[in-house]
């Protein structure tokens, strides 16, 4: 196995400190010449299996491969399935048909009908204003999602504090919007005051003018909802939508910001892979599973609580009567430098085409997403951290800074392949029929423990398939003990892999993968990190590597172990995880 410019962040992952240290410069594009190489070792002479066997998580059975796209999938029995949506930037100075045509362009390129289209609106936005975006969305046969923000032109402003809404300062504007939504007649999804758990949102309680009072956000939300109810705008469905990673302060906790089951129809999460630029997103490339598994798993189980300061995990259950359907609002990724044409765009060490295929496959089939009912791709060029990031899978017509830069056909084809999965449906699901009957705890959910725990998430889903020549990425999450620890807890961290034929390898930066044996008297494998301080919660990417075309096909198992310092990891330990996948032949 060759680690093509491995993102060796395991050491960074587990170092104590307020945040994970980042590279001084963006990670370079993977190159074969910079990569150490190992060759498969002979199968150990002993045939007995080692004691490092899965102890905590269970691996779901592999799902059948996607079939050819039907002309219309309809609504599966019981309301199961996942709807498709997209953020499509409205053209500037467009006629009344151009936005509709841009929406239909996206459907044609994807080879599948999308049910929802999202766009952003400032607080004083008039939905009837030229060029009638909401009407063009309906003319294209879609349901509109309006991201209606509470600030001034979408930015934080004291005049639009949460308390100003509670006082009634903006009631007239809210009533105007409610009446126009009612007059529209058809269903509208309202993503009101979204991402209230991070500082860029005007509704974030941490702003001085919001007085670090999450209760004021709840009161503000409920007042706006009540005005819509008073105006009879029952066609509006309310989306309470957070960012995947909260600001660490207690007042940013999801649990503290949930306005109540009676005023929420759907729960949304947003998260994007901004790549390796140090000021964009978390500062390193991330997979769809890294973005969505922990938060959606908590949401599905009713744990609407975010990690608090210093990594102390808040595990309180939200006081809700039942679960809610989940939606992924704004999923997207940048790619390799060869996969973008936008000058200055951030780039990733994970190929975008593979990110799309494996990400959508995971969302469709992993049990952590069993209540997911809508996935919406962010088809735009976004600004974050002072840089541009190209998330598009199709160029948007008549959009300055966008339409003049094409999108490689391989990216469009990857999206087309991903949404072909029959789990993605072409007809809108009735939210009242698809809400879960309660909470569900995934098998991968971590129970409270007296010892530190971690998770290993690959970009390919458990039981999934990755091809020779594609990229394998791994992410780590490290959780401290549930109860406060006395002093520091030191362990050694190991990542080992078993390849088809029985060969065993250990990940040991900077040498990458080193073979080791299981026979009597054989030395233990090297650790990825020795003397690991696990007193705080830390997360990040572990490695990115190319699965070379000469690697044997078949089932691979990647084990990660936190073992007592100086012990032999082959004996297992209280915290062991396994991730299995199949390596298929190169296409």
Descriptive notes:
By secondary structure, this protein is an alpha/beta fold. It has 2 domains: 10-61 and 448-584, Immunoglobulin-like (Sandwich); 82-428, Glycosidases (TIM Barrel). It contains 11 helices and 21 strands. It has helices spanning 10-14, 98-110, 133-139, 162-167, 171-184, 214-230, 254-257, 288-300, 352-365, 409-419, 431-434, and strands at residues 82-87, 116-121, 143-148, 188-192, 236-243, 266-273, 326-333, 372-378, 381-384, 387-390, 424-425, 453-458, 465-467, 471-479, 490-498, 504-508, 512-515, 529-533, 538-546, 554-564, 575-584. An 8-stranded parallel beta barrel has the order 1-2-3-4-5-6-7-8, surrounded by 4 helices. Strands 13, 15, 16, 17, 18, 20 and 21 form a 7-stranded mixed beta sheet that branches. Strands 12-14-19 form a 3-stranded antiparallel beta sheet. The radius of gyration is 24 Å and the shape is globular.
Q: Give me the CATH fold name of the largest domain.
A: TIM Barrel
Mean pLDDT: 80
Strand order of the largest sheet: 1-2-3-4-5-6-7-8
Secondary-structure arrangement, i.e. CATH architecture of the largest domain = Alpha-Beta Barrel
Give the class from helix and strand content and strand pairing.
Answer: alpha/beta
Distance between the termini: 19 Å
Number of helices: 11
Look at the structure and name the CATH superfamily of the largest domain.
Glycosidases
CATH class categorisation of the largest domain: Alpha Beta
What is the oligomeric state here?
single chain
Please tell me how large the radius of gyration is: 24 Å
Percent helix among the residues? 10-25%
Which geometry do the CA atoms define? globular
How many domains make up the coordinates? Answer: 2
Question: What fraction of the residues are assigned to beta strands by DSSP?
Answer: 15-25%
Give the tally of β-strands. Answer: 21
The major beta sheet can be summarized as:
8 strands, parallel, barrel
Q: Which stretches of 5+ consecutive residues score pLDDT under 50?
A: 2-78, 305-322
């Amino acid at each position: 196995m060759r680690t093509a410019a491995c993102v060796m962040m395991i050491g960074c992952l587990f170092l104590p400190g307020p945040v994970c240290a980042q590279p001084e410069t963006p990670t370079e594009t993977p190159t074969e010449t910079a990569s150490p190489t190992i060759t498969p070792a002979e199968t150990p002479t002993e045939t007995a299996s080692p004691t490092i066997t899965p102890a905590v998580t269970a691996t779901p059975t592999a799902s059948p491969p996607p079939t050819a796209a039907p002309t219309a999938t309809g609504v599966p029995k019981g309301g199961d399935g996942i709807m498709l949506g997209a953020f499509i930037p409205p053209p500037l100075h467009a006629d009344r048909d151009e936005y509709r045509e841009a929406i239909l362009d996206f459907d044609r390129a994807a080879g599948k009908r999308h049910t929802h289209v999202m766009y952003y609106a400032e607080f004083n936005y008039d939905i009837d204003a030229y060029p009638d975006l909401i009407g063009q969305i309906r003319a294209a046969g879609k349901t509109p999602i309006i991201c209606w923000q509470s600030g001034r032109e979408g930015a934080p402003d004291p005049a639009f504090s949460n308390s100003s809404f509670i006082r009634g300062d903006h009631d007239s504007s809210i009533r105007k919007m409610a009446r126009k939504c009612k007059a529209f007649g058809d269903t509208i999804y309202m993503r009101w005051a979204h991402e209230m758990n991070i500082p860029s949102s005007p509704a974030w309680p941490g702003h001085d003018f919001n007085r670090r009072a999450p209760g004021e956000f709840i009161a503000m939300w409920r007042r706006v909802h009540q005005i819509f109810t008073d105006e009879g705008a029952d066609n509006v469905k309310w989306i309470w939508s957070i960012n995947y990673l909260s600001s660490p302060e207690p007042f940013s906790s999801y649990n503290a910001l949930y306005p109540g089951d009676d005023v929420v129809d759907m729960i949304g999460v947003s998260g994007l892979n901004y790549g390796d630029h140090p000021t964009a997103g978390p500062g390193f490339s991330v997979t769809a599973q890294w973005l969505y598994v922990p938060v959606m798993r908590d949401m599905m189980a009713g744990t609407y609580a975010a990690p608090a300061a210093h990594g102390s995990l808040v595990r309180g259950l939200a006081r809700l009567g039942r679960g809610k359907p989940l939606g992924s609002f704004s999923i997207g990724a940048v790619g390799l430098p060869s996969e973008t044409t936008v000058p200055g765009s951030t780039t990733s060490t994970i190929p975008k085409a593979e990110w799309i295929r494996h990400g959508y496959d995971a969302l469709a089939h992993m049990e952590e997403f069993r209540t997911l009912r809508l996935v919406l791709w962010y088809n735009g060029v976004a600004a974050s951290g002072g840089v541009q990031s190209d998330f598009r899978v199709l160029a948007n017509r008549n959009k300055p800074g966008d339409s003049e830069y094409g999108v490689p056909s391989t990216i469009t084809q990857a999206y087309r392949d991903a949404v072909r999965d029959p789990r993605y449906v072409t007809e809108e699901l009735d939210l009242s029929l698809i809400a879960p009957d309660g909470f569900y705890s995934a098998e991968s959910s971590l129970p409270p423990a007296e010892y530190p725990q971690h998770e290993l998430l690959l970009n390919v889903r458990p039981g999934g398939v990755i091809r020779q020549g594609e990229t394998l990425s791994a992410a780590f999450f490290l959780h401290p003990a549930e109860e406060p620890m006395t002093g520091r807890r030191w362990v050694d961290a190991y990542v080992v892999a078993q390849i088809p034929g029985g060969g065993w390898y250990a990940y040991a930066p900077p040498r990458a993968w080193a073979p080791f044996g299981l026979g009597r008297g054989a030395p233990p494998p090297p650790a990825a990190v020795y003397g690991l301080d696990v007193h705080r919660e830390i997360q990040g990417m572990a490695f990115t590597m190319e699965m070379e075309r000469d690697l044997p096909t078949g089932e691979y198992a990647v084990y990660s172990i936190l073992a007592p310092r100086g012990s032999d990891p082959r004996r297992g330990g209280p915290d062991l995880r396994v991730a299995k996948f199949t390596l298929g032949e190169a296409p």
